[in-house]
Fold each of these.
Amino acid sequence: MTNPYTSKVAVITGGSRGIGYNVAKALVARGSKVVLGDLLDKEGEAAAKEFNDKAGKQVAVYLHTDVTKYKDLIALFALAEKAFGGVDIAILNAGIAGDAACGLFTPLDDRADMFIHEVNVGGVVKGNKVALLHMAKKGKGGVIINTASMAGFAAAPSISAYCATKHAVVGWTRSMVNLEAVANIRANAVCPYWCETDIIANPKDEVQRQFLQATPKTTMKYVVEAFLRCIEDTDLSGQALLVLPDGVHVQDQYIPPESCFTSEFLEKVPELAIAGVNLHKENLAQAVKLAKL
Ligand SMILES: NC(=O)c1ccc[n+]([C@@H]2O[C@H](COP(=O)([O-])OP(=O)(O)OC[C@H]3O[C@@H](n4cnc5c(N)ncnc54)[C@H](O)[C@@H]3O)[C@@H](O)[C@H]2O)c1
């Protein structure tokens, strides 16, 4: 079996600290090159320097990247191509919570209300589209991993807007299941439960502080393990991996009730699935041509 890490290049958004940094560190330790994109330049540059110094050669680069902007994401993936010859693994991990995480009682403000959606959902959607074009251009396939959350399944009134964004990331990622047949790209979502990072370091009120203090948490070790599993396990495609206090679990897919299926429909499904893959192959080829990346 070929090594899934050596000679591989991973683009990681939100790579300056926390989960993104730790995943980058694990990938570099296994022989991959990493391209980090984040808003936190000092931390991102320090991370790249740390990895390069330790390796004694260039294995990491950093670029200031706002994941809400196509321009920045296009530049980040172009850097992966320029510095290391392309991208094999795209990890769309940047995300925010904080004051925007609830959103129910804030002023009626078009821009402010959509901001968390632009970062947590927009950053994933736009990043996936740029990654897909790069991977398809090379024709070698690849791995896409999106950081969702346990909040992509569970409902939590104190972080309702955050839950909405992470449900969206789960739905988007699961819907990319046929990319494996279309372009040999496996897309999966990692969905951590609470994990000690800066994103949960400043609770917005006393109720949240007490909740965070009392709730069990998962560990960074398990979170990193989930990302590595998405890379190594070629059976995983369109899946969501929960990272719970007791480890990593693949979440069951939702199966619609029987009333959604008739025998005529079921007969037609295999034929439609093939037609859908062929249509997406044509659409992707056209998109690569148009994007000129
Ligand atoms: N820590 C947890 O409990 C937990 C649980 C579930 C999911 N997550 C998710 O994990 C991901 C990583 O979070 P973390 O826990 O490492 O927290 P973190 O705050 O340490 O890391 C988030 C990173 O994203 C970056 N970022 C934010 N907005 C950005 C933007 N517009 N463009 C580029 N970068 C941006 C931040 O600068 C930071 O480096 C997030 O998507 C978060 O929602 C975290």
Amino acid sequence: MTARRADLVVVGAGVAGLTAAVAAADAGLTVTVLYKPSPAGAPSTSTAYAQGGIAVVDPTDPDDSVDRHVADTVAAGGPLVDVVATRSILADGPAAVDRLISWGAVFDAGASGALTRTREGGHGLSRIIHAGGDATGAEVQRALTAAARDRPALTALPGRAVALLAEGDRVAGVRTEAGDVFGDTVLLATGGTGHLFASTTNPLGATGDGIALAAAAGADVRELEYVQFHPTMLYTAGARGRRPLISEAVRGEGASLVDAEGNAVMAGVHPQGDLAPRDVVARAVTDAMERTGAPCVYLDARGIADVARRFPTVTAAVREAGLDPQTDLIPVLPGAHYLCGGVVTDLHGATAVPGLYAAGEVARTGLHGANRLASNSLLEALVMGLRVADAAKGAVGHPVPSGARAIAPPEARAGREALQDAMTRFCGVRRTADGLAELGALLADPAFVRDAPALSSRDREDAALTAVARAMAAQALARVESETEVVA
Ligand SMILES: Cc1cc2nc3c(=O)[nH]c(=O)nc-3n(C[C@H](O)[C@H](O)[C@H](O)COP(=O)(O)OP(=O)(O)OC[C@H]3O[C@@H](n4cnc5c(N)ncnc54)[C@H](O)[C@@H]3O)c2cc1C
């Protein structure tokens, strides 16, 4: 790739990146979208894997309101939820979904044409729209990719971002392995960090690159310690890396969790039972695994009528493991799923670094607090993607930089599996101050983290994972220590 220029440069082709890109192209901007090449056939975005749906208030439903959605979000995320940001983002939800539908996305609807809504953990009522039963993300990705292809002002290219380009204090472009792309506005929409852990629901490329890039450029990176572990990732003995998710919507339709001895996992744990917020269910599942000594618990979905039709994605994954959800219990355990914190942005997606924006899972807007409410992330990415497009419109017109410098993240890195095992052991569902201190010492040990030039794409991903792990371990330790002080 020779050097390119666009009004908006987007790193990431999931829901956040493509929403911003398509909206910016519609507003008359030139846009270049960069994404990581992925192994043939495997989606490279979390977006494509999303199952349950998009949480959005139905403005015609007298029982629901933005206030109720805000209340549920605050109840799940706790005091770290920024209520002003949350209200602002959730209130824009219906219009953002309408925009996505106008670009061609098709959601499941009843005979009257009204969208079908289901319920997930932490939601007080059914407000989750979905597509293809449990294939919402695939439909969102399909529609956005098609919309992007239809816009001549938008170019999407495989290109792994390895550094930000800056002139003075302003970010002015992105360096990829194949060349430089300059832009008036740079949006990081690089997704999550699931591969910090031994098993995750995230696609292979979820290695925290955007966080490492933004932190190196001086952006504020916060609340990394709040990793959401989804309570029901499919368990297969010995498997690691990306693992299939069993959507929470399966519990929304009546499935329940039982331990290896047949006891209800959520009995007496939380008033919302199997539909309690995810952190509560993940801890209860971990307790049950410890109590029984089994490597998993079980999801009983046998009572859901025609489960294969309602949940085709889940059914296919379970069948691949040699089981049938209509007749067998599904073995599940918690898996790294979603990063609640990230690169701090304002309500327009702007980071503290001029010219640099972040949206989607890489960003921390204040919506998720310590625990994201189910299906709020696709909505946040849509709303914030649209807002970044607006902001980019106002930033067009900077001259092409004459003397841009590259700001690359640190290259020091641990071996991938050793890092994942250490993070899983010390920074997983259960954390202690001693364990986190041990993790911090390990991550500071030059025998564990080697400082050598990053020569390959894999090296750069390992370096990003290591940089994020160091920040996450430090923030988690500070949090555990401050909570211990409060309790004492
Ligand atoms: C299995 C699963 C189910 C989920 N279900 C739901 C759900 O039902 N509802 C919901 O709201 N949320 C759900 N989530 C969460 C939600 O899907 C994600 O948070 C959301 O899709 C993230 O979108 P994004 O655009 O931020 O990132 P992604 O969709 O992950 O896209 C990231 C993009 O960044 C690119 N990228 C990364 N690093 C680089 C780099 N260095 N250079 C260039 N490109 C780079 C990748 O190639 C990719 O194109 C689910 C997540 C998973 C994994």
